[in-house]
């Protein structure tokens, strides 16, 4: 799972590449306000793992362009 925060706007964005039980792949994204119980989530199915990884890289590039900073997610479960 990858997670980014925008401290000035108090926003977060996270994305993960997930394999389902049948071997299909999807990119799950979630975003919202820090400290808020509100937020949104979206699932986008992708044809291959490589396509999903490319989508995650595009998301990371877009988040950085918009002022978000990557944070460690090892402690998040």
What does this structure look like?
The chain has 77 residues and is α+β, with helices and mostly antiparallel strands. The protein has one domain (2-71): Nuclear Transport Factor 2, Chain: A. Helix content is 22%, strand content 44%. A 5-stranded antiparallel beta sheet has the order 4-3-2-1-5, with helices on one face. A hairpin with a 5-residue loop joins strand 2 (11-19) and strand 3. The mean pLDDT is 92.
CATH topology: Nuclear Transport Factor 2, Chain: A
CATH architecture: Roll
Helix content: 10-25%
Order of helices and strands: EEEEHE
User: Uncertain spans, ≥5 residues at pLDDT below 50?
Assistant: none
Structural class: alpha+beta
- Count of DSSP H/I helices: 1
Main β-sheet: number of strands, strand sense, barrel status? 5 strands, antiparallel
CA radius of gyration = 13 Å
Query: Approximately how much beta-strand content do the residues carry?
Result: 35-45%
Strand order of the largest sheet: 4-3-2-1-5
Number of domains: 1
């Amino acid at each position: 799972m990858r997670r980014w925060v925008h401290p000035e706007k108090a926003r977060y964005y996270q994305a993960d590449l997930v394999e389902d039980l049948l071997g299909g792949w999807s990119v799950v994204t979630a975003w919202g306000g820090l400290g808020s119980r509100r937020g949104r989530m979206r699932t986008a199915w992708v044809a291959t793992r490589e396509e999903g990884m490319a989508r995650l890289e595009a998301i990371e590039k877009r988040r950085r362009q918009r002022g978000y900073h990557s944070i460690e997610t090892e402690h998040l479960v």
